[in-house]
Specification:
This protein is α/β, with parallel strands linked by helices and 260 residues long. Helices cover 38% and strands 15% of the residues.
Length: 260
């Protein structure tokens, strides 16, 4: 298995709040990549839109966001749009991100679902519905998986969800030790989890979170060679990372096409 990247002091702080040890740090958007969509705003919420059709996907990023450190989010959105989906990528932190924050736990805690996270997600879904989309799915990364699971547990009408390297345990920050499982148990839609090798065991096949979601039509596919964050932040010059990014995107597209 490939060695995970060496954690920086900044990353160690982030791990304690959100991501397991050995997780990938933020990466810059490839300089040569030309995005196919357009950036705009939905009210005060920064968004990136691409694609068309009656089936839509909302993308919710990780704590690094995309307006300050793009990672590969525009490319992921464009890839999904090329598969026939209308895609909306939101910036839940309104231009802010975890980059450079000394108190990562405090920063994450300053964005509870009840602040703007929930209303922004609801506004995105309504916007897609107003544009004629009759079926809306959601893709989240790390923190973004917590955000969409929270939304789904509260009745936001997603048809399905996909979560690479999930950080659903963040519900424990807001709702206590039993909060994560209680949130997951309320979800009624199919959810595909794609945990990395260093993600918590409850996300793996047979774990409590994965089993609860399997009962609702979901499943968990483990990527044992990968470190948390690889899909949107991993080094694509590493052949093993590139292989598993491609595999994750293939599984994502197949699951979305099956359930949307």
């Amino acid at each position: 298995a490939p060695l995970p990247p060496v954690p920086s002091a900044q990353l160690v702080a982030i791990m304690a709040a959100c991501c397991p040890p050995g997780s990938w740090p933020a990466c810059q958007s490839p300089d040569e990549y030309k995005a196919e969509g357009v950036e705009g705003k939905l009210g005060e919420l920064p968004i990136y839109s691409v694609g068309s059709g009656a089936k839509a996907i909302l993308i919710i990023p990780d704590i690094f966001g995309w307006s300050t450190d793009n990672g590969r989010f525009f490319g992921i959105a464009d890839t999904l749009a090329a598969q026939g989906f209308k895609v909306l990528l939101s910036d839940p932190f309104h231009g802010d991100s975890a980059v450079g924050k000394s108190d990562i736990m405090g920063w994450i805690g300053s964005y509870p679902y009840e602040k703007n996270i929930g209303t922004d997600i609801e506004a995105c879904v309504k916007s897609l519905q107003d544009d004629g989309c009759t079926s809306v799915g959601v893709v989240g990364f790390c923190w973004g998986v917590w955000a969409f699971c929270k939304a789904a547990s509260l009745g936001v009408p997603f048809k399905c969800g996909v979560g690479p390297h999930p950080s659903t345990r963040l519900e424990g920050v807001f709702a206590g030790a039993d909060g994560e499982q209680a949130m997951i148990d309320k979800i009624e839609m199919p959810v595909l989890l794609m945990p990395a090798g260093n993600d918590p065991e409850n996300l793996m096949e047979g774990g409590s979170v994965a089993e609860a979601l399997a009962k609702k039509g979901g499943k968990s596919i483990k990527f044992p060679d990968m470190a948390h964050g690889w899909v949107c932040r991993g080094d694509m010059s590493d052949a093993t990372v590139a292989r598993d990014v491609e595999a994750a995107m293939k599984n994502m597209v197949e699951f979305l096409k099956e359930h949307l």
